[in-house]
Design brief:
Elements: H1 25-28, E1 63-66, H2 77-86, H3 97-106, E2 120-121, E3 131-138, E4 141-146, E5 152-156, H4 159-185, H5 189-193, H6 197-206, H7 214-225, H8 229-255, H9 261-264, H10 282-296, H11 303-317, H12 319-330, E6 346-349, E7 368-369, E8 373-378, E9 419-423, E10 434-438, E11 444-445, E12 449-456, E13 459-466, E14 475-477, E15 481-487, E16 493-501, E17 514-517, E18 520-523, E19 525-533, E20 544-553, E21 556-564, E22 567-575, H13 585-591, H14 600-607, E23 614-620, E24 624-629, E25 645-646, E26 673-675, E27 679-682, E28 689-691, H15 704-717, H16 722-732, H17 737-750, H18 758-772, H19 790-823, H20 850-860, H21 879-894, H22 898-901, H23 913-917, E29 922-923, E30 941-944
Helix pairs in contact: 4-8, 4-10, 7-10, 11-12, 11-19, 15-16, 17-18, 17-20, 18-19, 19-21
């Protein structure tokens, strides 16, 4: 059964299998957000709501952090107009982008003394001579902002006042962004922000993942409020936070200093000030949390596509051989994969069963996706613009969001984000653990995360929180400890095949709207969202509307229709954290409570209460620790988590109850965890031996290797410092994974015979020089905006897709090759349009065929390969034939002009290699920011070393 919400720090009951599940992202950010009625705090015996304990900062100036572009994410209409016409920006809206960017050139000579050039002091409080402003929204709280960064330092004499101040400061810094994302969470983006094609696509991608009625959202709140003392307190905190948001919004509206985007999208009149900023409510927080969870904290799903690629493999090779080949590409437990826990420990989960039961493979050719959109009208049928009457002084702001406020495919691809590097005190210069870690959440303007310090009764922390759910710091530091997370992506989403039926007993069809549920023919529940929009100054898309529709069953939302053994079925997607987006608030509450988290063990206990799939990292002056969180369902014996399963009682999750989507969850002891391993690294790689990854691509080459090889070497040398660990992070973040890990084998094959073609020889020589220089994507000098070894980089970017196709497609055949590409993209270079912000997102080299290429090339070269692919592909396994394939594809790549490799976009001219890679903050509002050098690096990052402990 689901874990009950925990008692205060002083008492803790033994934890049942799991409990409240959360919606992951939530975890990263939303988890905190599950709100509840204010009365919930009344009888709390959790942390005191009235008395703040004295605060001692045990980091002693050795905690640093940074979050670009700047703390201020709000801009009035006048400020937006001045920015678009004169190039000015409001104070603290862009002042962190420069130091963040400067680390590219400055990391090679970095010392502890120079960290302040690239990071900000993350100490508690603000020195008197550094105070920029003090706001007192109520008598029991102050918001102090520092001169350098403008970060809010919130100090309350009561807990309610502290949380009110947190909400008030969040609205000061991110009001428009919070409003935007609560509407995304409700599937109502187009009515709020406009009907641009990108907005339509975004809400169509997200809403089917978490479709809720208002009653569903309120149910989450009520359940948490009734769960116990910490649940009551969490809901009281959330209500006070929302009260703070609404207090600022009302004051800003009256004073006409609210974000100008409300005018540009037609919500408030530019002259009359008529209109409103709709007050926030607790259910908005659940909706907002579901967005964060969908982006960063889920794992699993995709079993229908996995089944299609298995069928393609069996068609190509026959059932037995095809299954073996498919398993080799699936790489559930690859022996060469980089691991966060490299001490040999094993944590079996979701592995391949010896004898699978209940697998529901579709009949070939029978799968069709479920239709989502109906009743299109106006611009929903055909994209069109409409003339909008605009005051002359606002004409420079017309059409700024005609492409949508966010990328249309924001939720279309899994986003494994964030990295962490931690070294035990046994290997550091000072004898204290050192950590460099943070989340990669993309680059938005304003940023999704915001920095804050919270000091009040039972709360003492500084760090980053997702805007709108920042009742607590989600990633940051306490009085004598710091913590961070990376997306873990273990499998908490399963696909069920529900047998269709008709209530009158007639033969069902694929389109039937009833299904067999424990022997009864029951109707599916239809959920709908009707959206309509009108043109505005910001979005000139003509008036239009449509209706979105999904069907919900006890086994989740219908995603596809098919036949299985000739019988019509609906495939459904069931996520363990569905209906539990807000539950993780308890874990975050504990992280912020100095009375609860006192050491590594208590931190791990707190992390158990986060239902989304995250890798949590902890460091204090004595210990480092790691814990993998997530509501991992206990599956029925023999169920293969990688493929669809029949929706029958024998194959359900153990103790499954559909009423609130609860089940049995693997106990904490079965989650990967550790204390004081010599070092830890994570870049969304595999956690531990036998802990099956939810997706494809966890093999011999992963971007986690870029960290592991460097940190391992650093630890072997000893004397690790904050600067040295930051240096290796930055070095890895400028390295092309393909160049460092796969190019050596490619060159071995190419050099196995003399290269006689001059063009090919020149290309090989350029690639060798680039490899010798470290396979970096880095400027010739700071600000040159030209890469060193630019020709080699262009060649690699043009070569990789051609190489993979030439290496694998002839052997796999068109059908299997395409099916496997649907499971795992071939490439993810910096210039590709991927990541949370689409292109220019920084994060790169997570998903690709580098492991497949590496294993296959080593096999052709006669080198040892553990976990080899089920067949040899390059040149049919012949070295000379493989070499011919590489030479042919390389020669064609080298001849490809830069304008074709980097075709340009709204930010970059065709052929501009540096710009194609560059980090560019996606404007969610009216402000834009300068392009920055590419870095594969956390958006928010901490560098910490605590010299003392309570």
């Amino acid at each position: 059964m689901r874990r009950s919400l925990p008692l205060p720090a002083t008492r803790r009951t033994s934890r049942p299998r799991r409990a409240l599940t959360a919606t992951a992202l939530l975890a990263l950010a939303a988890g905190l957000l599950s709100p509840l009625p204010r009365a919930a705090a009344a009888e709390s015996t959790a942390p005191s709501a009235s008395t703040a304990a004295p605060v001692t900062d045990h980091c002693e100036g050795q905690c640093s952090d940074i979050l670009p572009p700047g703390s201020n994410g709000n801009a009035t209409l006048a400020e937006i107009l001045a920015h678009r016409t004169l190039g000015t920006r409001p104070a603290h809206s862009s002042d962190q982008l420069g130091p963040y960017n400067d680390l590219v050139a400055g990391h090679t000579s970095l010392t502890d003394g120079k960290l302040a050039d690239f990071f900000n002091d993350a100490s508690f409080g603000v020195p008197e001579d550094q105070v920029e402003s003090v706001t007192r929204p109520r008598d029991d709280v102050t918001i102090t902002r520092d001169k350098k960064t403008g970060v809010p330092h919130i100090k309350g004499t009561t807990r309610e006042g502290t949380e009110f101040g947190a909400g008030y400061a969040a609205a000061q810094d991110r009001l428009w962004l919070m409003d935007l994302f609560r509407h995304i969470g409700r599937g109502e983006l187009t009515p709020f922000a406009g009907g641009a094609e990108g907005n339509q696509g975004l809400e169509q991608q997200f809403w089917p993942q978490a479709p809720y009625t208002e009653e569903d959202l309120q149910s989450q709140i009520d359940r948490i409020a009734a769960s116990g003392e910490r649940g009551e307190l969490a809901m009281a905190d959330a209500q006070a936070y929302i009260d703070g948001i609404n207090a600022y919004a009302q004051k800003a509206k009256k004073g006409r200093y609210f974000p100008g985007e409300y005018v540009l999208t037609g919500h408030i009149g530019p002259i009359t000030n008529i209109g409103e900023i709709e007050p926030f409510k607790l259910t908005d927080m659940v909706a907002l949390a579901s967005v964060v969870g969908a982006l960063f904290g889920g794992g699993g799903g995709g079993e229908v596509q996995a089944a299609l690629s298995l069928l393609a493999a069996q068609e190509k090779y026959g059932t037995q051989k095809g299954t073996e080949v498919w398993e080799s590409f699936r790489q559930r437990n690859d022996p060469e994969a980089v691991l966060t826990l490299h001490d040999g420990s094993s944590f079996p989960y979701a592995g391949k069963p010896d004898k699978a039961r209940g697998t529901a493979m579709p009949d070939p050719g029978s799968v069709t996706p479920e239709q989502l959109v109906f009743d299109r009208e106006g611009a929903a049928k055909k994209d069109a613009e409409a003339a909008v009457k605009v005051p002359s002084h606002l004409k420079p702001l017309r059409n700024m969001h005609d492409d949508g406020v966010l990328p249309a495919d924001l939720f279309g691809k899994p986003h494994g984000m964030s990295n962490a590097l931690m070294v035990s005190g046994k290997h550091t210069a000072a004898g204290n653990p050192v950590a460099v870690f943070g989340p990669q959440t993309g680059y938005f303007a304003p940023q999704l995360l915001m920095l804050q310090e919270l000091q009040g009764p039972g709360i003492s922390a500084r760090g980053a929180s997702f805007a709108g759910v920042g009742m607590y710091v989600q990633l940051g530091r306490g009085q004598d400890y710091a913590w961070s997370a990376t997306s873990a992506n273990q499998d908490i989403i399963d696909t069920y095949a529900v047998e269709l039926c008709e209530p009158d007993g007639s033969a069902p069809a694929k389109e039937s709207l009833h299904y067999v549920n424990h022997g009864s023919c029951e109707p599916m529940e239809k959920l709908e969202r009707r959206n309509a929009w009108k043109p505005s100054i910001a979005d000139s898309t003509a008036e239009g509307s449509y209706r979105m529709q999904v069907y919900r069953t006890d086994y989740g939302m219908v995603t596809h229709r098919a036949t299985v053994d000739g019988k019509p079925v609906a495939y459904t997607s069931l996520r363990s954290t569905y209906r539990h987006e807000a539950d993780s608030i308890i874990g975050f509450q504990m992280f912020n409570d100095p009375g609860y988290v006192k050491d590594a063990e208590s931190f791990q206990r707190a992390a158990e209460h986060i239902g989304y799939t995250f890798n949590w990292f902890y460091a204090d002056s004595r210990d480092t620790a790691y814990f993998n969180s997530g509501d991992n369902p206990v599956r029925a014996e023999g169920v293969d988590a990688s493929l669809p399963v029949r929706a029958e009682p024998a194959y359900e999750w153990q103790d499954f109850s559909p009423e609130h989507n609860t089940a049995a969850y693997t106990p904490a002891a079965e989650h990967p965890q550790s204390v004081n391993q010599d070092y830890y690294v994570s870049w969304n790689n595999k956690q531990a031996r036998d802990y099956t990854s939810a997706g494809f691509g966890f093999g011999s080459v992963h971007r986690g290797d870029l960290l592991d090889t460097r940190v391992k070497k650093l630890v072997e040398q000893g004397g690790v410092t904050r600067a040295s660990l930051t240096r290796v992070m930055a070095d890895a973040g400028l390295t092309d994974l393909r160049g460092e890990a796969v190019l050596p084998s490619l060159l071995k094959v190419l050099r196995s015979e003399s290269i006689t073609d001059p063009a090919a020889a020149e290309a090989v020589q350029q690639l060798e020089s680039w490899l010798d220089a470290g396979a970096k994507r880095r400027e010739t000098s700071a600000g040159s905006k030209t890469y060193a070894h630019a020709e080699a980089i262009r060649t690699m970017d043009a070569w990789w897709a051609r190489l993979i196709e030439g290496q694998f497609k002839p052997g796999l055949g068109d059908g299997l090759y395409d099916a496997l590409r649907a499971n795992l993209a071939v490439d993810e270079p910096p210039s590709a349009g991927h990541g949370p912000t689409g292109g220019h997102a920084g994060s790169a080299f997570l998903a690709g065929w580098w492991s497949y290429a590496d294993k296959d090339l080593r096999k052709v070269l006669g080198e040892p390969v553990e976990g080899a692919l089920g067949d040899t592909y390059c040149g049919g396994g012949e070295l000379s034939a493989c070499r011919d394939v590489l030479l042919d594809t390389l020669t064609r790549a080298a001849a490809t002009p830069a304008t074709e490799v980097y075709p340009g976009d709204e930010n970059c001219e065709p052929g501009d290699q540096w710009c194609a890679d560059a980090v560019i903050h996606r404007p969610v509002g009216g402000l834009t920011h300068d392009a920055a050098h590419w870095q594969n690096r956390p958006t928010y990052q901490q560098v910490v070393e605590f010299p003392s402990h309570r």
